[in-house]
Write a structure and sequence with these properties.
2 copies of one chain form a homodimer.
Chain A lengths: L19 H29 L3 H12 L4 E2 H8 L3 H13 L3 E5 L7 E5 L1 H22 L4 H23 L4
Antiparallel strand pairs in A: 1-3, 2-3
Helix pairs in contact in A: 1-5, 2-5, 3-4
The structure holds a DNA duplex (30 and 30 nucleotides).
DNA sequence: TTTTGATATTTTAGGCGTCGATATATTAAC
DNA sequence: GTTAATATATCGACGCCTAAAATATCAAAA
């Protein structure tokens, strides 16, 4: 119940007393992401009739014209392999993506955008980028730059903490 | 192809040329959130056998001991009403939460934590907070403070752009 | 060669999440 | 008071997502 222990490195006090600021920081991060993600999700649906996960998968492929293996997609999208299987199935059925057999490894597929997929994606990506710009437009250049750097620090911090439990 | 138009407020150039930085900023934000959220999700599951959405709903109720209506929960959790119905059903079945009829409005329920729910939540919340502290521990105090303020600015910016006037 | 272990993907079961539709209750208009 | 518009919550269909198990291939050791 001490009001303020000036030189405190009281490692026993790691309960809910002095750490609430980190919690609030995390909740605010989450709120921002949800706000933006929900907005983008509904606009993609309303204006292009596509889901956010399908758009994201296509975005990964557009950045890698040589195609990507299912496992690569899984890593980059930060979702499980089974999930990628389902999303890919849908995109294949829509003709936006193809599964090609890997010449090097018969277990693996190489997923690529089709011509139609690429055309379709480019159109959506342009609108998508406009929306993102709008969403960040209330911050000035300097703020955006600082945020970008601080998020790099957060990524390092969280990767470290999450990564070295069991490896 | 002008290299640099110094006093440029060239509103026609809102394509994919100069706006990529905002996209990268958004993708980095998303990556951080996913990293942290996935970590917390799996630890909640592994150590307490609970899902993140159920934990989140209980967290809202713990902050509002008088209970919350379904619609309030929906707003605060930033998910749809139908979703809250399902999560609440599960928590009721586990005895962690109750639905009470609202005395003021016979359409509405007031959802509250049970005694067991409160006890159970407090235990999990303590661990949860420790994990969050760990995840942010690689940033110093000043960085966390700056990030907190910049995210407030982002929240304002995105809320504005997404079309939230008054609340 | 056969076994062993790791890797790549799919499958299955169950929970989360949206949207749109419905049932019911409240509020406002007339 | 009846009607109409709005608000609260649930349901059904469908897609996303995870964890765990199953299938198939590769690579290397016995």
């Amino acid at each position: 119940m001490s009001k303020k222990s000036a030189a405190a490195s009281d490692t026993e006090t790691r309960a809910t007393s002095e750490h609430a600021p980190d919690l609030r920081l995390w909740l605010r991060t989450l709120a921002c992401t949800n706000l933006i993600e929900n907005h983008i999700r509904s606009r993609l649906r309303a204006e292009f009739g596509i889901t956010l996960p399908r758009f994201d998968l296509m975005a990964q492929l557009e950045r890698s014209p040589q195609g990507l293996k299912m496992g690569e997609l899984s890593k980059r999208m930060m979702v499980t392999g089974g999930n990628v299987t389902g999303i890919t199935d849908q995109l294949v059925a829509e003709g936006l993506v193809v599964r090609e057999d890997s010449p090097k490894d018969r277990r693996a597929y190489i997923v690529k955008l089709t011509g139609e997929g690429r055309r379709s994606f480019r159109k959506m990506a342009e609108a998508h980028e406009t929306w993102v710009v709008e969403l960040f437009a209330g911050m000035d250049e300097k703020q955006r730059g600082q945020l970008y750097e601080l998020l790099a620090a957060l990524k390092r911090s969280a990767s470290m903490a999450a990564g070295k439990k069991l490896e």
